[in-house]
Amino acid sequence: MKKILIYLTFVWVLFSPLLSSGQRINVLRPGEKLTYGAYYNWHFIWIRSGQIHLSLKTRNTQAGERWQISAEAHTFKSYDRLYKIRDTIETTVKPYTLEPEYYLQSFNHGNEHSFYEYRVPPPGKYIYSDVRRFKKPAFKDTLKVVPGIRDMLAMAYEFRSHDYSKLKIGQKVPFTMLVDNEVHSIFYRYLGKETITTRDKVAFSCHKFSILLLQGDFFPGGEYLKVWIEDGPHHLPVMVETKILVGSVKAILESAEINGSPVKFEF
To answer: Which residues contact 133 (CB under 8 A, 6 or more apart)?
Structure first.
């Protein structure tokens, strides 16, 4: 069970590794709030062990209006004894272009914790990072900004802003992402349209993608992560799934609202 919950932690960053060079469309709305359930699934067994919350809002700064995107993931108290998760990410970006200016990540997994802070001050040529990891020396670093680079949360919303109708089935699209104080060149693959039915028996028409995962302590390298994006005006991620040794772990959309009003889906 502990390994399952570790996997669930990284599924919540589900939307992270995505960016294309295709045409952009305006689907993002400040005031949006999304809630996902984190599940372990094997045949008819479903274990709901946590939740993921995403939000997008505006804030005023000395440089003008900015978007603040936040993500929070936690296990339920009944699972905390097995493996407690309390994670938060916040990123401040320029509206619509989603160019990053500030990023804060705090992960707490059991007794382990990590902290990452990135600042991109004008003129936006360098990233100044502050990194603190469990049982490792803290350090500061300076990285050069490369075209199109995004932190993993800004990347999620960047991806939703692209026109999937321009993609061909099987097409691979590269992207550049800043993760763990390193710049990575990765890709996603478009798998076409598919209708999926959630655990609550709700059917969605979706665009399906596979994502190249970075090899590390929690996932093997390769295209193991699948994402289904609603084929509607908001391009909401409906479900994310990754296979594990036995069964799979999933994040499934439970609710969506904009400025307090529920989002109407096209089924």
So the answer is: 114, 115
